Amino acid sequence: MRHVLNITDLSVSEIDSLIATAMDIIGNREKYQDICRRKKLATLFFEPSTRTRLSFEAAMLELGGSVIGFSSASSSSSSKGESVSDTVKVVSYYADIIAMRHPKEGAPVAASAVSGVPIINAGDGGHNHPTQTLADLLTIHREKGRFNDLTVGFCGDLKFGRTVHSLVSALSRYCGINLVFISPDELKIPQYIITDIVNKNHMPYIETRDMESVMPTLDILYMTRVQGERFFNEADYVRLKDYYILTPDKLAAAKPDMCVMHPLPRVNEISRTIDSDPRACYFKQVENGKYMRMALIMMLLGLTPEI
Ligand code: NCD
To answer: Are 195 and 250 in contact (CB under 8 A)?
Structure first.
C-alpha cells in the first residue's frame, strides 16, 4: 500500500508515467469512465478548500467511482475532540482511498500510520501540497515541454506557501533549474527548504524583493497569495497582502512565452486584466489538476484501463 504525503514519495519515472496517463485521459475520456466502479474516495477536509476537494471529487466521479467525506472540521467528529488518527482509522473501513487536508503540518503522516487504505496529502498547513505540484508539473509539461533548463520565479508568500515548497522539491530532481525567490523579508522561503532541498541538490538560486528586475529572466513566474490564515498577527497580514500585484505593465518586461502560474485562489496578486494574456496559465493548472488526480487515484488503487 502506497501513500503520497510528499511529492518525493513519487519517483521521477512515476511522475512521467502519471503525466503519460493524464495525457491519455485527455485524449480518451471514455476509456477511463468505469475504471473505479465500486471504489470509494473519502475526502477529509479539516481546512477550507474549493479546488482541491472538488477536483478530487470530480476526478473520482469521472473514473466511475463514488465519493464520501466532509468539507470542514466543524462538520466532523474532530469538533467533538476526536483525533485525526481515529477519524482516519474509522474512514479507512468505509473507503478505498483517502484524500485529506489538515491545518497541522505532519497530520497526514500521523494518518498514514493508522490507515488501512492509501492516504493522499491534499495540503498540510504551511508544509506540502503534492497534488497541486502534480497539476503544476503537467502544466509545465504541456506549456514548456520540459522540466530541465528553466528559470523559475516564485513570488509572494514563500514562507507559508506549501505549493511553493512542494514544487521546489519536485524541481530539485531535474537539471538546469535556476530558482528566483521573490518575497518581502518577512515571507522568505524557509531555511529548511534552502538547506535540505536547494543546497543539497546544488540548485542555483537568488533571493530578491524586486519582481521587476528579474522579470525578463524568467521562464515561469509562480505567483502566490499571502496566506492570511497562517499569520499570527492581522496587522502584518494587512501590511503584506498587496506587496506584489502583477499588472500588464510589469508583465510587459517578461519573455513572450513566459508562463504565469498560480495555485489559486487569487486575491489581488494578479490583476484580472492578465487573464486574457496568452501567458496566463492558472486556469489551465485547474484543469490539469483533475487529470493528474485521476491518474494518481488509479495508480494508488493499482488500476489500469482495459485496452
Ligand atoms: C493552495 C493551497 O491550498 O495551498 N490552493 C490550492 O490548493 N490550489 C494555495 C492557497 O491556498 O493559496
So the answer is: no
